[in-house]
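Researcher: Structure prediction, please.
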Amino acid sequence: MVDTMALLLPFLRGSRMARTAPPTSGPPTDDEVLLDAPDARLGPALVSAARGEYAPAAALLAATRAAGEWEHRDRYTARLAAFAHARPEWFESWRAAAPRDPDRLLVDAQLRVDRAWLSPARAELLRGVSPLVTAAAHGDDRDPVPWRIALDHARGSQAGPKYVEELWEAAMRRAPHHYGCHVAALRYLASSWHGSHQECLDFADRAAQDAPADSLVQALPVRAVFAYLTDGCGPELPRAQLDAAADRAAALSALLPAADPWPAELRNLLTYVLVRLERSSDALEQLRLTGPYATSFPWDRFSDDPLGHCLRVRAELRKPSGRPIPGHLGRDRSEDH
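Model: Predicted structure follows.
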């Protein structure tokens, strides 16, 4: 029998640290670093789901919908769908109890899209998921998150640009600065314009220029830079544009709470980009702001052990030379779904 307490400890520890971790004067030690730690709101919902209880997850998503917290709703949906993929019992109970619940439909759409992406028959399977994605979009007309899922779905099912443009316009009517939808659009453009990194970066720059200074869309250009640095194809981009994208993301990072799980993915991504740009002192500052929170992305693009890979880069960065060797950064090994 599985030790339930052993299963719950990562979530309990992550929630506790999310409430109490103070800004640090330097990077934490390796044994203090957590991978994909949930924040104080998501942690209890995951603990309850591990016990087979869906009500806290349902209440969490209902609260984000009522308050229009679309960025949190998007991230929580993805995390809950991933947990449902690994531990489906609680979600099956939710599905049976609330077949028309818009929050349950949203997680179900994310779960089904994620599962289809894992199959060699991805495009065919995704076409079969279309009715569920549509049902999720009808759940709450204000919600942009189903449209982010629809954009990911369209990319995987090889939909044409006219259809994707309609999805994009629908998403922007609901939330013109929703980061998840912008990332989904950037991924579609990257897959459609393979090697045309200048066009992708231009799209990201325009979106960031139109967004508020504290919007996550300010990090979109550094996502485009990451794709360029790990792709290995297409013409070279001007170094000034790469630095400007990193600077924009660093300015956003400085506005967000230190040692907090919410901006951790941004800071992990920015750390990678800064190291690749040989801006070691700036990368060390991001490690300080990140605190004990490692995230699978971007490190899982280079290793089956994202935490170990992150720690190796951290260790190299903290050496007196302050410059990780290229082999420790790795090369892109999987598609960025």
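Model: The first strand starts at residue 34 and ends at 35.
Researcher: Thanks, that helps.
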